[in-house]
Amino acid sequence: MSHAEHTDTALRGSYDREAAQYDERRYHSAEGKLFSNLELAVLRNWLPLTSRPLVLDMPAGTGRLSWALAERGATVVGADISANMLQVAASKQTADHEGRVYFAQASGVDLPFPDNTFDVVTSFKFFHLIPNERKRQFVREMTRVLKPGKPLVVEFNSPFYGGILAAVRYYFRKRHAGGMRMKCIFPDQVSWLFEGLEVTRQQGVKFPLSTVAAAVLGHRVVAELNLWFGRLPGVRYLAYAIIIEAKKPIG
């Protein structure tokens, strides 16, 4: 078994075991809900969902984004390597969702779809798990199934979250002093990762103390402030995550 295959097998097993508790651990807290809502706000602002696009959500996980995009008018294919995560995602289906979300177990480096299939490809909460030497492999495969001129929207962890907070997180708490360039995306890595694509937008998501501020100012105000500051080039990398839109060339 190759190193890549070993990594994929380990990820599949980890998320198969965690599937039943995944949402509760990440998105039931006040901070988790705020972060999820901010991600969805960016997607609502960026994606032309009124035109009923065909969207690939990879990895779909428990269907958090897949169902949210479907509720906004998209037809969504959610792909994930973990069968148990997809089982949880499918269990969220209601009569209103029927026929608008489809799930497929698949690897992001071997997607079972023809070239130029999708109007949008999204990939959230994933690239921090992938070694640097494989990141472009995933981007290229996602680009293959994307229609020309259409957007690939990818989320990464930021290495500069809250300034000193990033150092505490990676150097001390997680003991990954040399791993930040694998877990996060640095500004100088963007053009390398999206080589051949046109990077059109970048957005920082969730600044430090956002949850505390939301309890005082309200979620709507804090969300608007987050999204405004997250668009500023000199500030956005201080957010927890960076969302990048890159378009596939035409022709």
Mean pLDDT: 88
As for the number of domains, it is: 1
State the CATH topology.
Rossmann fold
Series of H and E elements: HHHEHEHEEHEHHHEHHE
What class do helices, strands and sheet pairing give?
A: alpha/beta
Question: What top-tier CATH class fits best?
Answer: Alpha Beta
Query: What's the CATH superfamily, by name?
Result: Vaccinia Virus protein VP39
Would you report the number of β strands? Answer: 7
Q: What would you report as the Rg, rounded to the nearest angstrom? A: 18 Å
* β-strand amount: 15-25%
- Low-pLDDT regions: none
Straight-line N-to-C gap: 38 Å
Strand order of the largest sheet: 3-2-1-4-5-7-6
Helix content: 40-55%
- Report the sheet with the most strands, covering strand number, pairing sense and barrel closure: 7 strands, mixed
In a nutshell, what does this entry contain?
By secondary structure, this protein is α/β, with parallel strands linked by helices.
Features:
Rossmann fold; alpha/beta; 7-stranded mixed beta sheet; 251 residues
Q: What is the strand and helix layout of this fold?
A:
Elements lengths: L2 H16 L3 H6 L2 H17 L7 E4 L6 H8 L3 E6 L2 H8 L10 E5 L14 E4 L8 H13 L6 E7 L6 H10 L6 H4 L6 H4 L4 E8 L4 H8 L1 H12 L10 E7 L4
Parallel strand pairs: 1-2, 1-4, 2-3, 4-5
Antiparallel strand pairs: 5-7, 6-7
Helix pairs in contact: 3-11, 10-11
Characterization of this structure:
The structure is a single chain. With 251 residues, this protein is α/β, with parallel strands linked by helices. It has a single domain (3-247), classed as Vaccinia Virus protein VP39 (Rossmann fold). 42% of the residues lie in helices and 16% in strands. It has eleven helices and seven strands. A seven-stranded mixed sheet has the order 3-2-1-4-5-7-6. Helix 10 (210-217) packs across helix 11 (219-230). It is globular and about 45 Å long. The termini are far apart. The model has no long low-confidence stretch (mean pLDDT 88).
